[in-house]
Amino acid sequence: MQSAEFQRHRSCLAAALGKYTSAVNNMEEMVMLPSLLRDEQAMDEPSDTSAQYSAGDLYDYYTMLKSIRNVVECGPVIPENYKAIIGASKKTLEKEDPDLEVLFHIHLTGLSDVLSSLTKKANMLTRRYKEILGLAN
């Protein structure tokens, strides 16, 4: 039987995945001409600390967000350059006898934070595209 806390975390994760997928689908429906995003600065609102290290243009974000959405919907395809890193991590876990519950909570928290940031990026990109087209409210 699954604990109530596990069920709550699973539903929170499902909600975060749903919000992200919905935001990217909305972005994709709005952005009819992705080429208009090229050379547009990928800066968020000033209160967003991730703006300090944003690199690339909105088109780069657009392709990244769609790519991640595909992984969320279809499952991961591990790039060759990540396989060695994942293999090393697995070997470390096998040697150390880690507290799996602690690792689960760490990864779940990290995943939730990343999904939240990606959702904000997708919403920001949609707003910026509307501004480019002159459709902003």
TrEMBL record:
Signal peptide: none
Main localisation: cytoplasm
Entry GO terms, CC: cytosol; nucleus
Localization per record: Cytoplasm; Nucleus
Pfam families membership: Spot_14 (PF07084)
One Gene Ontology term from the biological process aspect of the record: regulation of lipid biosynthetic process
Keywords: Cytoplasm, Nucleus
Presence of the UniProt keyword Transport in the record: no
Family: Belongs to the SPOT14 family.
The protein's name in its UniProt record: Thyroid hormone responsive
Organism: Latimeria chalumnae (Coelacanth)
GN (gene name): THRSP
